[in-house]
Amino acid sequence: MKKNKLIAYDLGTGGIKASLFGVDGTSYAEVFQQYETFFPDDKFIEQRPMDWWKGVCDATQILLNKSGCDASEIACTALSGHSLVAAPIDKDGNLLLEQVPIWCDMRAVHEVPEFFSSLTYKDWYETTGNGDPEECYTIFKLMWMKKNQPDIFEKISKILGSKDFINYKFTGELCTDPSYASGFGVFNLEKWDYEDRFFEAAGISKDIFPEIRPSDSIIGYVTKEAACECGLLEGTPVACGAVDNTCMALGARGLEEGVVYTSLGSSSWIAVTSQTPVIDLKTRPFVFAHAKKGYYTSAVSIFSAGNSFRWIRDRLLMDHPADTDTYDIMNKMAESTPPGSHGVLFNPTLAGGSAQEPSPNLKGGFMGLTLGNTREDLVRATMEGVAMALRKTLDILKSQVDIQGDMLLCGGCSKSTIWRRIFADIYNMPVIKTNIDQDAASLGAAALAANACGLWYGYDRIHEIHKPEDALTPDPETNAYYEKLLKIYGKWTDALANLGDEMMQI
To answer: SS3 sequence, 113-156?
Structure first.
């Protein structure tokens, strides 16, 4: 059979999605397999790498059966993987820990000041672009491991990220790509390579970090053992792949300067592609190397978007039967209320403030409530509050990058027409939804696989794959009204942050 199919894996926090793509970018089928997250202690958030591997194997077999595709048709495979993971491997290739810290694990609080005792945060951040909380990054997790698990640490031969561990299980190769390496906390964005002095500051050997290979290069081939477990043919090419932020940026219309998208999931972020990383010491955007040297994806985020909307659903719409489409009802409720939600504002920081917000102690809330307000007002105010919080972060990116064209909305929340209208009016820019929807990361991984095996030459084709399903332009009158509300929202957010800091003291 002709090898003209690709399998892309999106290894996320909640589970693994395996997608079958054709050469033209058509998605034929997809399968999702969930895995567990563990919380063994305060600030400890872990997963089992072997659960990732089992998920990949199960999803691959189900995908091939579901689609009717023969394994001999698979030309290449590639992964998108969640970032900042430290999976330790010994000299014999064995995984040293059953459970490993994932991206949001923040146990390394004491290691951060030790690291910065010999260099400044400014120097480190401006070199790496690592704007998330420092303790999330891999180098600090390793410092914690060295201090608290010395028997494990001394056996480490290599540490691997999430998608790199799966690549290792597929091929036996121990390597990573520039995008994933740029989240290790030791990567120089300008040099496109590791920075020696950061290893010295951490007291961690550079030798345990994996070799960096291009994201769209073939790193190896599916081994006989892996083939027996996952259902792919022995010898199937495996591309290096990329971190999830980079895969999503690539799948959200490629490698052009100023291309921007908003990912609307449980949390939410806005990312822009540019040839200059967006570095700002005050607001700390987080930056990853892109799929092509010389390009970067810079992002700003809020921690609660879809999960704020879900919180409202679970608290205010408990009277609706479980078998009803509650989100559809909420959309209709929001449509019944005018812009501004009859004077109600909502701050969506139910999970605390991100690095781009005034304090990590910022907490959510409603403002302007009266006895006359309805739950319809609260539902729309929640949608507007998420959009306002993101608009504030969007302004950070706009201050450094000439953002052209429209804003692509991706993720589950982008399915709401009324929410897209609210985003267009609050962002004050055209907003579009395409057929790719929640598959941007998978498409990005498929594009890397297609280039790695020679089915594609470059990434221009991604634009053709995106088929607009809805496009909304801002209403000038509504935007003018929202601009006034945004000023109030900003002052209120600063006040909430200050009060949140005071609350932490008591």
So the answer is: HHHCCCCCHHHHHHHHCCCCCHHHCHHHHHHHHHHHCHHHHCCC
